[in-house]
Amino acid sequence: MLVLIVEDDDSIGAPLAKGLAREGFEVERLTRGEGVVRRLTDGASPPSVVLLDLGLPDVDGFEVCRRLRSESDVPIIVVTARSEEVDRVIGLELGADDYIVKPFGFRELLARIRAVTRRTAARAPDRLPIRVDALTVDPRTREVTVDERAVTLTPKEFDLLALLAEDPGAVFSRGQILESVWDPHWYGPTKTLDVHVASLRKKLGDPAWIETARGVGFRLRARQ
User: Fold this and answer.
1) Which part of the chain is CATH 1.10.10.10?
2) How far is 54 from 12, CA to CA, in rounded Å?
3) CB 51 within 8 Å of CB 77
4) 2-121, which class in CATH?
5) What is d(CA 96, CA 88) in angstroms, rounded to the nearest whole number?
6) Topology of domain 130-220, per CATH?
7) pLDDT (tens digit, 9 = 90+) per residue, 71-110?
8) Of the candidates 82, 93, 86, which has an alpha carbon nearest to the alpha carbon of residue 200?
């Protein structure tokens, strides 16, 4: 498994790379943001996960995250000293799969790497498209259309919509969604779920697609 570390601080990046190598990971490290997207599109073996620092010397880490997600579905774990909830929400909204704050325990980071890569590997490539009224969700190609109009979603937005589409009309609790789409041991802000639901409603073109079950969670509703 190849881990791409994007970290300019040698006191953090170097021992992290050595520790991951001791655990059997193949490791690459970049110290600047500009090279990250090029690395993922250069035809070389793609990384299994990206560990992304936000405080890079050339490009803001949030911008790197956005660019990465526009080009690839590679799992992204933000590794940063920024601990404010708003930073977590922004990072997750831009497509990060997880967020860990410095200083962190190495074993915790290992667990998070393994969790996000398990979820990526578990995405079934051979499932048939799901159709709900004018909405089509294709788990194999990860494409979504509404009234034959292509809808561009982030990986997390797609996973959320695909989960709700598995059983239209059924209410999925907030806990079920966070465990299925994010992590069984999710420690981040629950507000990120509301951010993703709001974004999905906007992109689908009609907020009625996703209905709030007050005090419980959300469900996908076919339009009347």
Assistant:
1) 130-220
2) 13
3) yes
4) alpha beta
5) 9
6) Arc Repressor Mutant, subunit A (1.10.10)
7) 888 889 998 888 787 887 888 888 888 888 888 899 999 9
8) 93
Nearest CA among 85, 91, 89, 107 for reference residue 53 = 91
Helix, strand, coil share of the chain (percent; to 5) = 40, 20, 40
Q: Which residue bears the tokens 């967020």? A: 99
Q: pTM higher than 0.70 for the full model?
A: no
| DSSP codes joined into one string, 171-193 | PEEHHHHIIIII-TT--S-THHH
Cα 64 to Cα 36, 61, 71, 104, 135: the distances in Å are 7, 5, 11, 22, 31
- Tell me how far the alpha carbon of residue 171 is from its chain's centroid: 23
Give 111-162 pLDDT, tens digit per residue: 889 888 876 665 544 567 889 999 999 988 889 999 999 999 888 889 899 9
Output the pLDDT for position 16.
94
Report how far residue 37's alpha carbon sits from residue 66's, in angstroms, rounded to the nearest whole number: 10
Taking the C-alpha atoms of residue 46 and residue 57, their distance in angstroms, rounded to an integer, is: 24
